[in-house]
Design goal:
Layout lengths: L4 H6 L11 H5 L4 H7 L1 E4 L22 H10 L3 E4 L7 H16 L8 E4 L1 E3 L2 E2 L12 H6 L1 H4 L2 H17 L3 E2 L24 H16 L4 E7 L20 H8 L1 H10 L3 E4 L11 E3 L5 E3 L6 H11 L5 E3 L6 H4 L4 H11 L4 E2 L7 H20 L4 H17 L8 H11 L3 H14 L1 E5 L13 E6 L2 H13 L6 E6 L5 H10 L2 E6 L6 H4 L2 H6 L11 H13 L3 E6 L6 H4 L5 E4 L7 E2 L4 E2 L1 H10 L18
Parallel strand pairs: 1-2, 1-12, 2-3, 3-6, 6-7, 7-8, 8-11, 14-15, 14-16, 16-17, 17-18
Antiparallel strand pairs: 4-5, 9-10, 13-18, 19-20
Helix pairs in contact: 3-16, 4-5, 5-17, 8-9, 8-17, 8-18, 9-11, 18-25, 19-25
């Protein structure tokens, strides 16, 4: 049994860390201690009283005693934060400090991995008006020809600085999936593009940006989620590439970054890859199916560890996602992932009320039994725990924060002017001019001009309208059609009276990971199709503008593949790759992509971005 020297050796003074002694990292932890370190729990919601048949939706913004106790009792290795855990800078710093205090009281006294999905762009858990979220990976890909890896490095550095200031030490980023499928519902703009070498360069730059600034990165989603048309949050995707395609398209970013950098973590994909492993399992409903990569020993151990030489920590994607949870009971899923060679189970069970604490006990007992039976190899469990401890040692994780000093620093750092400046520079550098006929751009807006804006919703209308007003001294009148709902005759009247039409689309719709996760899907299972199909409405309005001979600009606000459908109706076509709104108050609605778009529309800046994906042979 290890004693409690770990706490005193890890933490000396204000946030100061003394490295783990090598004998500690290599000592034989008890099996229970090893298993505790291999669990990454989500504490998104918790009700201290059993809510019965109702779903618990009380956000954890302060650490309940029950959750503190299980971290201490079970030597839990890490937690993941969601947007619901973050109200204010002082609050989240105190929450993280309390989490680390609970870990410090455990037998091992080891600091926690405190993790988050803060990719930037569409996936950001810190409120956008608080932290700097940037315009995402595909916008970075669009800047590569002009700026190389500059924005990949800078965005990761800034995100790392802001996360570390909050006490977060693991970021589930970068996404290095190569987006080869225009219909990909979950990756699309989260990818840098369709060129594996470009993805490898930019992904490697972000790994360095995160890890050189103290935050552990996690490449995802191995062996690649780029050519799917199913979201693994809602189903089990299957990639039918042959081995040659896999090695030429899917694997190069992982292979190159492993070879050059050995990132701290790599996250698995809940995806079937029959060319890599066609072995099967029987689902909880009795159906024989191909194993997903997360549970494939051939993929996790033979390919990732042995063939690609990855020595770091392998973590699953969230185990509550449908790609796993629809086919496995939670405890069975964890057993299978550990048997495949995965180090950490992310969100292995749902802990929402006191009754769930018994399920955690049952999970750990079951894992112990599987080791005793030999289903799980005892030496592999020990080696896995050692990898986890060595990663904590390498990044000098601490189980103590000084609340007051940390709060002051974080309040100055998060979203500061220099960070927002880089965010704005990326947004502008990414804007891509795909088409410009009849000298449409820059817009020749005069005082008295009427501009009609067609947007997916009114907030985006207002954001662009305000950005245009802020960047011109001309007196312009505006009208707006929201594709969420409008009166067709009124919209036609506005189009006919306008001098200029600016129409925009954002596709595909948001996936579960962007909204937050599977809990959101449970709350609203129709969220992905809650909005009426806007494509037909937008096409009809664009046709009307064309028939009325109106000068029209089409803007792709997200994945630029929609230019293939709508671009022919515009005299000019632009791509922004993002539509983030960072300021949303009664007085102002604004976001970096809209400000950048307005500058390009008005000719105050050129559009120098390059499409990082192919659009129906357009480029």
């Amino acid at each position: 049994m290890l004693n409690k020297f770990a706490l005193s050796s890890l933490v000396i003074g204000l946030g100061c860390f003394m490295p783990l002694q090598s004998s500690f990292a290599e000592s034989a932890l008890t099996l229970k201690q090893q298993l505790g370190q291999k669990l990454m729990l989500d504490l998104r919601y918790y009700c201290e009283q059993d809510p019965g048949e109702q779903k618990c939706r009380t956000p954890v913004t302060e650490l309940p005693a029950d959750l503190a106790n299980i971290i201490t009792k079970h030597n839990i290795g890490g937690v993941i934060l969601f947007a619901e855990n973050i109200d204010t800078v002082p609050q989240v710093i105190k929450l993280n400090n309390d989490l680390q205090k609970a870990a410090a009281k455990s037998e091992l006294g080891l600091p926690l991995f405190i993790s988050i999905d803060q990719e930037g762009g569409r996936v950001a858990r810190i409120p956008r008006d608080v932290g700097t979220s940037f315009t995402g990976n595909m916008s970075i890909g669009a800047t590569y020809k002009e700026h190389g890896t500059h924005f990949a490095t800078e965005s990761a550095r800034i995100i790392a600085d802001e996360l570390l200031a909050l006490g977060v030490n693991v970021n589930y980023a970068p996404t290095v999936d190569v987006n080869m499928n225009p219909d990909n519902p979950v990756i699309n703009v989260r990818s840098y593009g369709e060129d594996p070498q470009l993805v490898a360069k930019l992904g490697g730059a972000q790994v360095a940006g995160f890890e050189n600034n103290g935050v552990i990165s996690s490449l995802k989603h191995f062996p690649g989620h780029g050519d799917t048309n199913v979201d693994s949050h809602t189903g089990l995707p299957k990639v039918m590439h042959d081995k040659e395609t896999i090695w030429q398209q899917d694997l190069p970013p992982f292979k190159e970054i492993i070879k050059n950098q050995q990132p701290g973590m790599i996250m698995t994909a809940h995806i079937q890859y029959p060319a890599l492993d066609d072995s099967t399992f029987v689902s909880k409903e009795g159906k024989t199916m191909i194993k997903p990569a997360t549970m494939s020993r051939k993929i996790i151990t033979d390919l990732l560890r042995d063939e690609l030489g990855y020595q770091g920590v392998v973590i699953t994607d969230a185990l509550d996602m449908a790609g796993i949870s629809h086919f496995f009971e939670p405890i069975e899923a964890v057993v299978n992932t550990f048997a495949a060679g995965v180090d950490i189970a992310l969100m292995p069970i749902e802990i929402r009320s006191p009754k769930d604490l018994a399920v955690l006990e049952a999970l750990i007992e079951r894992l112990e039994q599987e080791v005793q039976r030999g289903t799980l190899n005892a030496n592999e469990m020990s080696a896995s725990a050692t990898r986890i401890l060595k990663l904590k040692e390498k990044f000098k994780l601490t189980s103590s924060l000084d609340d007051e000093a940390a709060i002051k620093k974080a309040q100055l750092l998060l979203g500061d002017q220099s960070h927002r400046k880089v965010e704005a520079e990326l947004a502008l550098a990414a804007i891509t001019e795909v088409k410009n006929e009849k000298n449409t751009l820059p817009l020749n807006i005069k005082s008295g001009s009427k501009v009609h804006i067609i947007m997916p919703d009114t907030r985006k209308c207002y954001a662009l309208q305000q950005a245009l007003i802020d960047n011109t001294d001309k007196l312009i009148s505006f009208s707006c059609t929201s594709l969420q709902g409008y009166e067709p005759l009124a919209a036609l009247k506005e189009i006919n009276e306008a001098d200029i039409i600016i129409a925009a689309n954002a596709s595909p719709k948001q996936s579960a990971v962007e909204v937050g996760g599977m809990d959101d899907l449970a709350d609203n299972p129709e969220f992905a199709i809650a909005k009426a199909d806007q494509s037909a409405a937008l096409e009809s309005l664009l046709k009307q503008a064309k028939l009325a001979h109106k000068k029209t600009v089409f803007v792709s606000l997200r994945a630029p593949y929609d230019i293939a459908q709508f671009g022919k109706f515009g005299d000019a076509v632009l791509a922004t790759y993002a539509y983030n709104i960072d300021v949303d108050t009664d007085e102002k609605i604004a976001g970096p992509a809209f400000t950048a778009l307005a500058n390009v529309l008005l000719g105050k800046a050129p559009a120098k971005g390059q499409l990082p994906v192919t659009i129906n042979d357009l480029n």
